[in-house]
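chain below, 225 aa
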Amino acid sequence: LPSSSWSTFEKAGYYNWTISRSLRLVCLNSMLWYAGNKAPAPKGSVDDQLVWLREQLQEAHQLGQKVFISGHVAPGFYTHVLSPELGTSGLLRDEINEAYQDLIANFMDVVSGQFFGHQHANSFVVLLLDYTVYYLDYDKANMHPNETPKWEPLYTLTTQYGVPDVTTASMVDLSQRLNSSSELLDTYIWLTTAFNDSCDSFCRRVQLCSAMCSRAVPHSACITS
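prediction:
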């Protein structure tokens, strides 16, 4: 890391890195905001990170830079909740989820990409260009432990779902078709789990609402509709 990044990294695990004159990487410690994180955070770090993020985006805007944001836990909601008893709470604390998305919306001309993990599923929330998903059949691989495991293509988004690209307009069109076509939603769920998990009516509703809604109020309304 450059020396200028160490102060925030040592304080609470987040930092920035100027990749070029036109591109900046902002690495968040989104575990500080994770709704399921019960460990005490460093004093002031939860709010400080959001203030720091705003400063990074403002500075990038002034310098004419684009920003890639990375983190572990994403904003939005879990896509795989298999029982109503488990609830449909967000990934981040509600107030952080709202504040973060408001901030990103204010700097939509600066933020070129957001990259998160955590869910262990290839459901769509943020999409860049076209992509192909690959999977590894563990049962098959374990039957031949001395052979190199083979990753196989599962699907390519544009050809699988019949969209021209992965722009916002195309994803809105796809989400509307998922909402109106039970068969297409079955295919989507089947592919997000690489042919594995069963999914009842509540599970299907969660999958759909989590793909369409990342804010608490519309997500709750979608689940209960």
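The chain is about 40% helix and 15% strand. The beta strands are 15-20, 23-27, 66-70, 111-115, 132-136, 151-156.
thats it, cya
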